[in-house]
Amino acid sequence: MCLDNTQNDAFIPFNHRQTTIFSLPKLQKYRLRLLGLIEFFEKYPDESSCINGFKNKRLEIGVVCKKCQHTAHYFRKTDLKFQCKKCGTPISLRSGTVMENSNLPFQYWMICIELMTLSKKSFSALEMQRILGHKRYEPIWFMMHKIRRIMIIRDERYKLNGCIEFDEGFFERVDNKDVITEKKNRES
Quick check: pTM over 0.70? Predict the structure, then answer.
């Protein structure tokens, strides 16, 4: 059996060259998303790797003591807290982040953030609950809303300029007067 397409034209549909289901850029985009998710799970396979990744990110940004404003700290692995070298005040790893006052595991947060940022379409809290395998709906709902609030705040920092391209959208200008008259005509 030959794998060359030129000799096995009987196995190729007649209009194969004219119609394609997916264009190459779309396939590459989905492949990149899938690779991003695979790389994420390779990088953060368990809770301890998520904690270490988050701790390193906090250290990179900088941890500041709320009491004395000192920047040098120890990290206590037993209770996942930083301790100020100057005054000894404990600072939670989650303190000052979107995860503050949450008892959900770091891995839930990391997976949820990754899935919400990888996909154009949003996930429902019920779907995220099923993905994470969590028993209760409410904590997942709160977690997703906290992440969405932070994403909105971050988006407000940037202004678009230059050439802007929108995908998968339809935009139409609608004047309020036209809508009101159309509604009145339908009712009568």
Answer: no
